[in-house]
Amino acid sequence: MIVILILNLNILFCGDEMMIDSKKLNKNIKFLVIKRNGKKEKFDLFKLIKSLKNCGAEEEIINKVVNELMLKVYDEITTDEIKNIVYSILRKYNRELAEKYKRGVILKVRTSEKEFEPFNKEKIVKALIREAKADEETAKRIADEVERELLKLNVKYLTAPMIREIVNVKLIEYGYEELRHKHTRLGLPVYDIKRLIKHGLKENANMLHNPESIHKWVADEVMKQYSLLEMFPKYIADAHIRGDIHLHDLEYAPTRPVCMQHDLRPFFKYGLKVDGTGLHTSTSKPAKHPEVAIQHAAKVMMAAQTNMAGGQSIDEFNVWLAPYVKNLSYDKIKQLMQMFVYELNQMYVSRGGQVIFSSINVELEIPDYLKDKPAVVAGKEVGSYEEYEEEAQLILKALIDVLSEGDALGKPFLFPNFIIKLRDNAFKHEEMMERIHELSAKFGTPYFVNLTRNWQGENVNSMGCRTRLSSDWTGDPEKDTLRTGNMQWYTINLPRIAYEANGDDNRLFEILEERLRIVKDALLIKHDEMIKRLYEDKILPFLTQEFDGEPYYRYEYTTKAFGFVGLNEMLKYHIGEELHESKEALKFGVRVIKFMRDYAERLKEETGLRWSVTQTPAESTAGRFARLDYKYYREETLSVVNGDLNDINSLYYTNSSHVRVNAPITLGEKILVEEKFHPICNGGHILHVWNTEVSSDPEVLMDITKKIAKRDIGYWAYTKNISACEHCGFISGGLRESCPNCRSKNLAKYSRITGYLQNVSNWNRAKQEELKDRRWFSL
């Protein structure tokens, strides 16, 4: 036996071979190694031997590697250097073994913040078979290619996203586009997330920049990618990406319907389960006291908001609550309404850190279809609703007073959207109508639904920016307008159709029908997805909870809507005139939207589903379409687009079938144009009356309301601009540059963006440009 001393290590050799006893040898090893993180630790021969055994090395090879390694190591050698030495030694004796060692030891995959594991190409094979449905031969071929590429890389460690990216590149190289489509990873670049954290987004003026919204925006992007890659076929996704159509609420497409009109009676009769089951939250008995009834009304909208993508509305709000305020003083009723309004404006709990996008529809008197219906209080029937008309009117009066006072600083309440139903007897309630118009003159808060027109039906309600339900589906006003809503609307880019038709009427309608078919397919896909979420996966329990053996949400009555943007610009390009410029232009515009409505009516017969046409609010879509068309159809777009051509983000199309916002016409002329489209757009419509007056005359406004009510305008609002001084708190009318009270230039400015009041600083660039362009009417 020959004893050799190497680097102060007592290593025993028997001839040329080493007698391995790692435990004994480890005790004698004195030198340190430097790890990748810079830390120093004692060299562990046992780990090396274990890794060689894991590679399949026999004892003879292990002896040779350790023997040669011990001659080359030195104090404070790096772990990478040791691995390279081991690899070079192994290559002399067994190349296959050396490559296996390199894969297992040098190719490390980072699986978490502190954990690494050897690269294993079999995981690629399994992932391709499981996720992309690849056959085994193809999966192995791709995995071998990826392994060869990875061995060429000079990286300290691999990550799962990095490996997946290389797999996807190989799939593309070999022409497996569909496999790549299914195998791709969803997410955001680091740069984009940094920008969201720093600057946020301005797609929704109701959403502020805060930690909750940042998380929502990141999650939204992943879900949007999923929807376009997995939920919708390529031809639909491509149409959206190109800007032929717009798929709204893509982040919620696989999981949520849009908006809903609520009925408070089931909750007043059976109690409230905000999770829909009562298993995860506390369950309330039916409200006995008016304070609790008010809280439940607010919580119904709050709970439904977690299951839905869009706005929440309570129809017949003052009717349902009327029995609860019987024998209460007006001051008490007003306090209750103040509680409700503050709840909706301070429940900062909706998606991404925002208040609930809420609406309430109210009546001047009990409508005929509800007069003989049992009134509900605390789980019991207490007569019929026609007995509580006085209480319903006191609730309405109290709401008007609360909304007129504004918040503690005197600012207008931004929610709920306050929607007045004008039935045939509306103007007989003279005092109430005067109060409503005083509120319109001060803040522009009320919206008006015109139920005096024959085409409107027995009951009509609106919610959010304009979404509409009418009792013209089955003829039952309760089933058609309560406990249901809009499942989804998707929007068609009308100006682009004009560009592609190039002046040919027949071609224009051919392209329009092609776009309608794409939107129809997309809506049917979402319709089927929602059935799965509601009744198979059961992830929307608030909506599917049952009352009297029936789900609360009447999904089978929901609308599927065709939206549109830029009719005015379509006409300007196609026939050379805008909506307000000639009877021919208006007639052709009506023909276009009637074509869409006829298509929806045919689908009703074919599918048994409730199809409609809606004027898209287009808070971000009007700008998105214009920007994309400026990119792909620049010459055509230049002749019709609105905005500053030096700032592409300011470009926009006119919303739906509205006249251009700065069209040189009177309010009367605007009404004569836009009323043509309200009866056609049965899924939603609105007339915006931009009020330039700092202080309007309520009597003048009411006179205008009487005139509008005689026209085919179904829904409208008087928009009053407000400026609130951030220095002294002074509230003044108009969009001011400085405070009239203290001259401060720090002002919060409020106006109606599409169908709701919001701080102008939260608007996207295109909508801010539209605000600058608006022609204000002197009322």
Automatic annotation (TrEMBL):
Gene3D superfamilies: 3.20.70.20
Gene Ontology molecular function terms on file: ATP binding; ribonucleoside-diphosphate reductase activity, thioredoxin disulfide as acceptor; ribonucleoside-triphosphate reductase (thioredoxin) activity
E.C. numbers: 1.17.4.2
Coiled-coil ranges per UniProt: 125-156
InterPro entries: ATP-cone_dom, NrdD
Residue stretches making up the ATP-cone domain: 31-115
GO cellular component: anaerobic ribonucleoside-triphosphate reductase complex
Xref: PROSITE patterns: ATP_CONE
Organism domain of life: Archaea
Pfam families (alphabetical): ATP-cone (PF03477), NRDD (PF13597)
NCBIfam families per the UniProt record, alphabetical: NrdD (TIGR02487)
Official protein name in the record: Anaerobic ribonucleoside-triphosphate reductase
Naturally occurring in which organism (per UniProt): Methanocaldococcus infernus (strain DSM 11812 / JCM 15783 / ME)
